[in-house]
Specification:
Number of helices: 14
Distance between the termini: 73 Å
Helix content: over 70%
Structural class: mainly alpha
CATH topology of the largest domain: Serine Threonine Protein Phosphatase 5, Tetratricopeptide repeat
Largest sheet: none
Number of domains: 2
Radius of gyration: 24 Å
Shape: globular
Order of helices and strands: HHHHHHHHHHHHHH
Number of strands: 0
Length: about 290
């Protein structure tokens, strides 16, 4: 007897495999997860340098890896990131296309009542609002609200920043729809919730400035002047809070707030905020 015949080779126990997918016929390939944490950390590096082109290449590369690896959770995360990226860069078509796919993935993954769903609804709603789709945005924000408020014992206590961000973005959308009563009610909620968040003063400052804009739209500059100035003063004090880390996010907020201060005639404050942002970005680039 030929002893070599007693040894099983792969051809004896493996099913015939598809040469393209390297899996046995009839077997669904296992998902190959992308490194989500590493992707986010690298994304933060790009954004700290305001390298939007690099950030886009990074996200698009890993999206393709997630698709090829059939990693639906990874794809959902990357679609969410791309919605935000294209919203910031003003690419409406790409932002909304990635948003639609992200909403589809929630259904495929049966995630529609999860934290991931709340995040996705907010991201896609914010993109729609940014490009004038206020009605669709309002419906998506309400879906996010259902997810977060149904779990208020968890999210309100452990992740209050989720509700704070939601209320602020919802308020912006309702203000754009001229529903100022709803907008101001949501701004009140946002301010209250962000008191529970470490360094939440930055989000509160943004809320004050958004509210100032809403008052101008609602009442006009002359009638709303005293309220607007009070909100600008409050925002300035919040941004000066000594305990807030002077990091990349602080620089981003300063940069985001400066134009509003300038618009209302707070030119020195606006210049100071731009200077702070540039100094931080400069240190981070060294």
């Amino acid at each position: 007897m030929d002893k070599d015949n007693r040894i099983l080779g792969p051809e004896d126990y493996l099913e015939p495999a598809c040469p393209l997918c390297e899996e046995p016929y009839g077997v669904t390939p296992a998902a190959k997860p992308v490194p989500q944490q590493r992707i986010i950390e690298k994304m933060d590096e790009y954004m700290s340098r305001r390298d939007y082109a690099g950030a886009e290449r990074h996200l698009v590369y890993w999206l393709e890896e997630a698709r090829l690896g059939k990693d639906l959770r990874g794809e959902l995360m990357l679609r969410n990131e791309l919605v935000g990226h294209y919203r910031k860069t003003g690419d409406k078509d790409k932002a909304l296309a990635h948003g639609d796919r992200a909403l589809e993935l929630l259904k495929v993954l049966d995630f529609e009542k999860t934290l991931s769903a709340g995040t996705t609804f907010v991201n896609v709603a914010t993109a729609n609002s940014a490009f004038g789709g206020y009605e669709r945005a309002a419906a998506l924000f309400e879906k996010a609200r259902e997810v977060y408020e149904e779990e208020s014992g968890g999210y309100l206590e452990n992740r209050p920043e989720l509700l704070g961000g939601l209320y602020n973005n919802m308020a912006l959308n309702y203000a754009a729809m001229k529903d100022y009563a709803k907008a101001h009610g949501l701004y009140d909620k946002a301010m209250a919730v962000m008191e529970k968040v470490p360094n939440g003063v930055l989000e509160q400052a943004i809320t004050c400035l958004n509210r100032a804009n809403a008052i101008e739209d609602e009442k006009g500059l002359e009638e709303g002047e005293s309220s607007i100035n009070a909100l600008l003063d409050e925002a300035e004090q919040l941004l000066d809070t000594p305990s807030v880390p002077r990091n990349g996010y602080y620089a981003f907020v300063c940069e985001k707030c400066a134009p509003t201060f300038s618009y209302y005639g707070y030119f020195l404050t606006a210049e100071d905020l731009k200077r702070r942002a540039e100094e931080i970005y400069g240190r981070m680039a060294e």
